[in-house]
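hey so i finally got around to running the thing on that chain from the lab meeting. sorry it took forever, my laptop kept dying and i had to restart like 3 times. anyway pasting the input first so we r on the same page abt which one it is
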Amino acid sequence: MDHDQRTMRIALRAAQDAAARGETPVGACVVDPATGEVIAVGANGPIGTHDPTAHAEIVALREAARKLGNYRLTGLTLVVTLEPCAMCAGAISHARIGRLVFGADDPKGGAVVHGPKYFEQPTCHWRPEVTGGILAAESADLLRSFFRARRGKPAPGAPETA
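ok and heres what got predicted. didnt touch it at all, straight out
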């Protein structure tokens, strides 16, 4: 198994953990490509943390920056199960991530190969190398099964209807 698939499996486990907590199943990890060391792992957590910015990518970036004592994560790789949204793409750029690896495309909310294509904008100051489609089917299946199971159920914290 190649390095991208191995690290994507770590992100998929984090996504499964998020799903078990009722969060949208997206996981991420920050990896040092020179050593293969996984520096940080993040999972979606906006509901449980009451934080709209607690996307898996942001959680992993924050943890990596804290561990390394630097907000710049130049040369590191961010692996995430779903194409990042505009907020996360902005954070990836600001962190100076060297490479982004993602699993499933997100035609509705993605901002890398869909939507605003953040890294192609002239106002983007740092552009990582991007590789998409790594274990995309597994990432998409996890999301589909999560939302299929939730259909007809109210969102966490929403009032029940009779």
